[in-house]
Amino acid sequence: MERLARLVMHHRRIVSFFWIAMLLVGGYSASQLTDRLTIDFSLPGQPSDDAEKQLVKEFGAGSFDTYVGVLTVPEGQTVEGHKSEIAAAFKSAQESAPETRMVDLASTSDLGFISDDKRTTYALFQAPFPESFGPGVEVQIEPALEKAAESAGFESGLTSYNMLAAGGESEGPSVLLETLFGAAGALLVLVFVFASFLAFLPLMVAAVSILTTFTLVLILSTFSDVSFVVQFLIALVGLGIAIDYSLLLVSRWREERAHGRDNEEAVVIAMKTAGHAVLASGVTVAISLIALIVVPVPLVRSMGIGGILIPLVSTAVVLTLVPALLSSIGPKIDWPRVRKEGTASKGWTAWARTIVKHRTIAVAAALVMLVLLILPVFNLKIGQADVDSLASAGQPFETAHTLRDKGIGTGVLTPMEIIAPAADADAIAAATREIDGVRMSVVGGVNGDVAVIDVIPEKETVDSTANPLVDGVRDAAEGASDGEVGMTGAGPVVQDYFTAVYEKFPYVLALIAFITFILLVRTFRSILLPIKAVLLNLVSLAAVFGGVVYFWQQGHGSDAIFAVSPTGAITFWLPVLIFAFLFGLSMDYEVFILARMREEYDATGDTNAAVITGIGRTGRLVTSAALILFFAFAALASSPGVDIKVLGTALGVGILIDATIVRALLVPALVSVLGRWNWWLPDWLAKLLRVEPSPLAPKEGVRT
Questions:
Q1: Quick one: fold of 344-386+529-698?
Q2: CA–CA separation, 605 and 598 (whole Å)
């Protein structure tokens, strides 16, 4: 790190000009990237994905989202009395988007398409998979249906699961607006920390990091699909990570300057200490995101690849651009110097002394709080959010309520499609119609020797509670046919996602924990500290998931704060994403705090003194860094989609839990309790990992 610091300072102009060029190129890349992003929810190798491909091949449309068009005739009249006008209206809507497949009363003659009061009917529209993020065929179907309904004197509406999930918004959320919101919150924290114009330096570093990452993702998108979610992760997670890393390095530089070091020597020491912690943290975050890359799901894998670039690019920018700027303009922009860095924070030092004095009570209090947060996690359900939680206003919301009020229910939003030999279609429809929980089952189309049977459940099949129904429909279909039968739709897809994502995830988790352990052994020169760090990270994650279940799945507060009803389940791709990011981001604070404690212990040989000084020096930084990340994730939670809200709040609250209960209370208390055993690294392991050994010291207070 010293060699790197001196190399960067010697070539600081070249380094600065390089990153300025990357900033400009990144601005162009960001403007081009949106159109290159994809929405890919496929599950290669899973039965539902194979059936989906066959459905698209034979009938031109898939089951990604089912649009439900609704028509209601005037009071005192019935659907039966207006069959021809209703058929014409739905036909007109279908012709406005000829690539869609439509199933309605006219095409099936099934009375299940008529409401209990005989005044409302509906049609199912399925379209090809969308190629980009934004409005789909609803912009064609809805006005055509409305026009045809008005001319016939009917009321009309259109809804779908994804229209409801968008929160009634016709366009996607603005990445730029959310990033600016997060940056504004971060600036407030930085002004408090530095009380000088240095507050703007981490923001500049964040801008370079984010836009450089956009350039790399643009290159990646030329030979690989990249999910639209990646742009939010880069902008907001990148904002938090880059600022946090800059904050740590700049603060240590400031401290060394306050101790009388000249400017360049202060940069070198900051790089040897804080820079080393930044490097370890960046690699740790990147390692945790391996969990996303090994998952055989394109959506999750692309988020993992994009996510890994965030800490790696941020680390590279911080370890090169920051020392270049500090060595040149650092002292000039560190004005006015209101806050002094020569001594540790009095408040955090007093807090650390209290923790050390009452360490057993502190450990017990922290564990009680964590257990209370963890308890709800045992009710976790994986799937998709309930329809009721997706929107609280708008035309799709009103149409969904019409379906429910008329006795049709919201199961029509998540039909199951069965692909089977045409000769067995009627038998399959009859057999699946008898399954408890099925509203109706109709032959939705025939193409040569292949037919599609649409099975409409009474309730939406979006989580694990629908598994018995899905299995029952599958068994009935296979029992009624001698040929090959495939099934797709929301219920089967949720089942297959769970299999694809979580079947081998415990092994991935174990591998990541082991790699992280090895990295931290080298960083801390200790066996016990890395074990404790990994275990506490897992405990912290369990607490986060407990909070997510309590707040979102069970709805204790989601309606009051976000006007979102209980989701009933957590979307299948969210837990693995939350784990991957929080495991790495939370470990950042562990590295920052323990690296400083290790440094102080090496200087004094006193564990309690190391705890007090370490917390006194890092407490304000870690809390400020957590607040910065919290503002970034709060911006993410402002998106209209429920899934993005869940992701943003989970990451934000997770960071706060980790920075307060875990790192500010439990970590220093445990280090104090464990004493000299924290710092032990035997010779044989040190040689294996090529680091300096750390023999077990005599009992503290006893000199030899």
A1: Multidrug efflux transporter AcrB transmembrane fold (1.20.1640)
A2: 10
Q: What is the DSSP string of 99-140?
A: T-EEE-HHHH--GGGB-TTSSEEEEEEE-PPPSSSS--THHH
Residue spans per domain, the chain: 1-36+172-340, 55-135+145-167+396-459, 344-386+529-698
Instruction: Tell me if the domain spanning 1-36+172-340 has CATH number 1.20.1640.10.
Output: yes
| CA 364 and chain centroid, separation | 31
Q: How many CA atoms lie within 13 A of 453 on its CB side?
A: 32
Half-sphere exposure (CA, 13 Å, Cβ side) for 577?
27
Longest Cα–Cα distance of the chain, Å, equals 101
Instruction: Count the neighbouring beta carbons within 10 Å of the beta carbon of residue 422.
Output: 16
Domains 1-36+172-340 and 344-386+529-698 equal at CATH topology level: yes
Tell me: pLDDT of 703 over 60: no
Cβ atoms of 282 and 312 closer than 8 Å: yes
Residue owning tokens 């036909």: 91
Residue carrying the six token digits 């199933």: 103
What are the pLDDT digits (tens) for 631-641?
A: 888 887 877 67
Contact call for residues 454 and 425 (beta carbons, < 8 A): no
Q: What does pTM read for this prediction? A: 0.83
Residue pointed to by tokens 């009627």: 426
CA 397 to each of CA 157, 195, 460, 563: distance values in angstroms, whole numbers, following the listed order? 10, 48, 15, 13
- Tokens 């279609």 correspond to 425
Q: How many secondary structure helices (H) and strands (E) does the chain include?
A: 30, 10
Phi, psi (degrees; rounded to nearest 5) at 575: -55, -45
Dist CA 626 CA 631 (whole Å): 9
Q: What is residue 181's predicted lDDT score, i.e. its pLDDT? A: 84
Name residues whose C-beta falls within 8 Å of residue 468's C-beta, 6 or more positions apart in sequence. none
Contact of 313 with 321, CB cutoff 8 Å: no
CA distance 79 to 72: 8
Q: Is the peptide bond before 336 cis (omega within 30 degrees of 0)?
A: yes
Residue with the two structure tokens 């309590």:
550
Report CA dihedral (606, 612, 616, 621) to the nearest 10 degrees.
Answer: 80
User: CA 90, CA 92: separation in Å to the nearest integer?
Assistant: 5
For residue 561 the two structure tokens come to 């704060």
Query: For residue 230, is pLDDT > 50?
Result: yes
Question: Cβ contacts of residue 646 below 8 Å, gap of 6+?
Answer: 385, 548, 552, 567, 570, 571, 574
| β-strand pairing of 155-159 with 486-489 | unpaired
CB 677 within 8 A of CB 528: yes
Q: Are 67 and 128 in contact (CB under 8 A)?
A: no
The Cβ-side half-sphere exposure at 285, using a 13 Å CA radius, reads 32
Q: Please, what is the end-to-end C-alpha distance for the chain in angstroms?
A: 34
Q: What is the pLDDT of residues 658-693, one digit of tens each?
A: 989 998 999 999 999 999 999 999 999 999 988 899
Q: Tell me the one-letter amino acid at 331.
A: P
Sheet with strand 416-421: strands edge to edge: 438-447, 450-457, 416-421, 486-489
Which strand (E) or helix (H) includes residue 203? helix 200-220
Which of 102, 65, 66, 67 has its CA nearest to residue 87?
A: 102
Q: Give the count of beta carbons closer than 10 Å to the beta carbon of residue 473.
A: 29
- Among residues 499, 474, 460, the alpha carbon closest in space to that of 417 is found at 474
Q: Which helix (H) or strand (E) holds 69?
A: strand 66-72
Q: How far apart (Å, rounded) are the C-alpha atoms in residues 78 and 511?
A: 63
> Residues 64-81: what's their mean pLDDT?
93
